[in-house]
Amino acid sequence: MTVDSTRQLEKLQKQIIACTQCPRLVRHCRKVAKEKRRMYRDWEYWGKPNPSFGDPNAELLILGLAPAAHGGNRTGRMFTGDRSGDFLYRRLYEAGLANQPTSVSRDDGLELRNCYITASLRCAPPKNKPLPREARNCQPYLEAELRLLTRVRAVLVLGRIAFETYVRVAASQREDFPRRSSLKFAHGASFSLPGGLPRLFCSYHPSQQNTQTGRLTAEMFQKVLGDIQEFLASV
User: Which CATH architecture is the domain 3-234 placed in?
Assistant: First the structure.
């Protein structure tokens, strides 16, 4: 990544943090930050959109859904301070994509290696259910990141909404993109896309519900990461 691209990426993250395009989400994030959860009553909640996080020269981009109300909305970093992050960052550490297995705050020393994390939605939505127009408001930020992250060769989507978000963005970039209905989300699936677009890999979201019920296990997620690393080593 060039110096200019790095600066543009940093500028973009500042724009994301300052974004107020979705009044419902702004109100919700601020309300949660004010009322807090009892176990976090001594925390100063972030209460704003979450910027993306990771290596600006990454070959792997991970796309999630949205910050958790008492996770990213509290800590100010995606997948930080909640059970989803506990699962995700440990698996990234085990795969050599992070320097430590835990993520509890923005200043805990976590660094990602050859990996960049972003999301379909930058604000915590009420009941974890964003409205379609809110997703559309966030989409230009992802589009800008994909333009600036020029070394990305693989995209890992976490869950169906992230899958649909990325396919929609990718389809808008290529006239020869396959029919969107021909791409079916499934854990472990991967797709070669036209025109030099990154290869698309799919996983269930590492939500507490998915991991505690066994719908997504550590072994299942490690297999996906292994497939991605094997692909990156071959290109």
Answer: 3-Layer(aba) Sandwich (3.40)
